[in-house]
Amino acid sequence: MYPSVAAVRAKGTSVMLEDVAVPVEKLGEAIEDLQQLFVKFNYDNALVFGHAKDGNLHFLVSQSVRRRQIYSRLPHSMMNWRT
Question: How many whole angstroms separate alpha carbon 51 and alpha carbon 27?
Fold first, then answer.
């Protein structure tokens, strides 16, 4: 999936791949939370996939490398959404 997303990304962007593990019983809630964050941060083409039986999610977003402030704070914001 990474090559497919990377191939269609806009010029001046980079694809960011992250990995999240949650208890299996919280998987649906975690996906919904990720989708809300994608909307909040304007990631219209974000992609979520993973290993549902293991509670493991991967997500891909295409991020402008020109907007340094957003790029530097985004992983922290997204990775701590449940704390």
Answer: 10
Classify strands 13-21 and 56-64 as parallel, antiparallel or unpaired. Answer: antiparallel
Q: How far apart are CA 39 and CA 52, in angstroms?
A: 22
Residues in the chain: 83
DSSP letters for 1-32: -HHHHHHTPPTTEEEEEEEEE--GGGHHHHHH
Q: Is the pTM of this model over 0.70?
A: no
Q: Please give the helix or strand (H or E) that residue 74 lies within, else none.
A: helix 68-79
Three-state secondary-structure class, residue 75? helix
CB neighbour list of residue 69: distance below 8 Å, 6 or more residues apart: none
Tokens describing residue 49: 């996939």
Neighbouring CB atoms inside 10 A of 52's CB total 12
Asked whether residue 83 carries a pLDDT value surpassing 50, the answer given is no
